[in-house]
Fold:
Amino acid sequence: MSDRMRIVRSACRGCHGVCQVLVHLEGDRVVKVTGDPDSPTSRGYLCPKGSAAPELLYHPDRLTHPLRRAGKRGENKWEKVSWEDALSEMADKFTQVRRESGAEFLAIGQGTGRPHTEWTARFAHAYGTPNFIGPAHICYVPRVIASGLTLGRLPVSTFMVLEEKSLPAF
Structure:
């Protein structure tokens, strides 16, 4: 391994597995992602999706800046805008909706994204809408309840459950 090569421990967020990984870097560039053999859950295994992380990161078609529609819907015409302009436009639109229709007009639905769920709910609360649904409502909580009722505990590996005593009690 050269002086510029280093390996950093991380976690893949390509799916619910959240496998622990080793990110191989050359300078600041990711050159390879492999499974972490010291991981107690994935034990060094990494699926093709996790292994392809560098390809996704550096793909030439990956969006790296905000875009605004420049034509009619469906024409696939876009123009690059600054982050400041994009965020300002979104804030203005949210303010307009709340002013003209009330905060309850906005409903927020979020798919799985465990690290982001709390922030989405906080945004909904700060905006003033009670209309929020996330993965816990339609996926995780029903799974926990069903597992508890049928098996006595949650038999699903998750990176958030680090100790036996932190498992849900039923």
Remarks:
- The helical segments are 48-51, 53-57, 83-101, 114-127, 135-151.
